[in-house]
Amino acid sequence: MRLSRYFMPILKENPKEAEIVSHRLMLRAGMIRQQSQGIYSWLPLGKRVLDKVNAIIRDEQNRAGAIELSMPTLQSAELWQESGRYDAYGKEMLRIKDRQDRPMLYGPTNEEMVTDIFRSSVKSYKDLPLNLYHIQLKFRDEIRPRFGTMRSREFMMKDAYSFDLTREAAEHSYNKMFAAYLRTFDRLGLRAIPMRADTGPIGGKLSHEFIILADTGESEVFCHKDFVDFDIPGEHTDFDSVEGLQAIFDKWTSLYAATSEMHDEAAFNAVPEGDRLSARGIEVGHIFYFGTKYSEPMGAKVQGPDGKEHFVHMGSYGIGPTRLVPAIIEASHDNSGIIWPASVAPFDIVVINMKAGDQACDDTCELIYAALSKAGKDVLYDDTDDRAGTKFATADLIGVPVQIIAGPRAVANGEVEVKDRKTGARETMTIEAAINRFVA
Ligand code: 5CA
Hints:
Helix content: 25-40%
Number of helices: 14
CATH superfamily of the largest domain: Bira Bifunctional Protein, Domain 2
Structural class: alpha+beta
Largest sheet: 9 strands, mixed
Radius of gyration: 24 Å
CATH topology of the largest domain: BirA Bifunctional Protein, domain 2
Distance between the termini: 21 Å
Shape: globular
Number of strands: 23
Bound molecules: 5'-O-(N-(L-cysteinyl)-sulfamoyl)adenosine
């Protein structure tokens, strides 16, 4: 992508409305724009990061055996009247009437709709287990939307829903998502700790929030500090192994970890003082097992091996991609800007032409840009006629992991500089060596 032809509206000034660093940096880097309170557009640079986050989420959901579909944002109130949540959900639900005066709503979550899809076609235990997910916008009319897309009114959610014949089978489904979440957040460059959590309006008894420790987090959390170094389940984890996944769950729940709603002071005080971590955190995922809470009122049942009808046991599993992007920034930035983990960086490499219009600089940059693009890298080429200082500041601000800098003096020697955004380390090398480093 040539920067001269891209759309990346950088802000020079610090936006006044931003209270936390991720919000400030997302606005300054031209990643998002607020359209009305708590409702955001994702501008091209932000959209690239969001797409990469979603690709990792999707990959890990698929690995764990979940199946993707797409459900609409607008729902009919009837389904919610069946489950009994239409009245219970309160003011957070945005209620709308269509031209026939039928009550509709902008979905804050999809338990009802997915249960309706399930009951319309699944009739036998032989079709279980089943886990259906989508990545879709949701709307919750939060009293206090704040911190940009961290807590917005319209936001994106990956929500998965599992269906099983028995409680035991449903626990295996829960454990699959538990392990998939550990892997997902790890691949996003984050350390998320599962903590016992309250179930709120979703319901049920078993629930974990996945929390990233951050001073700016909205949740107050308490846990054993060893969680920070626990091993993440590997790529070859067998998601069909009931014992294997139970072992992962048991290990990751063997030490104290709870959000403030579930906090047990006495149990926490039993943890040796030096091992206690009392901190703030950002909830990036939340999983629930709620048994037959929706299947009973909505009549979602299957025939079991005993020939009788059974209400299915369900769970739901949420991740917030539009919250994850600022959460990653909270965890990874410095005074100059964002430092993206390579897995979600909007571009892999930025090529900086320090003197656009200079034939040797232009030729060198074009050569590098073409070679790296051909090798499948996402390359941003800063071919604008801005001052070199402005270009360096922009590259640091948008946090692309590698900068290849071509200035007249180095280029005259057939060389460029390669800078690592995270460490700041710079290396001068031949043009060929710079290309080969990233093509290999
Ligand atoms: N149906 C269940 C699981 S699919 C559910 O709705 N869970 S939830 O309410 O905990 O939301 C799931 C995830 O969505 C949260 O962990 C969080 O990452 C994200 N999320 C929730 N509310 C917001 C919000 N207002 N802004 C941004 N992300 C949000």
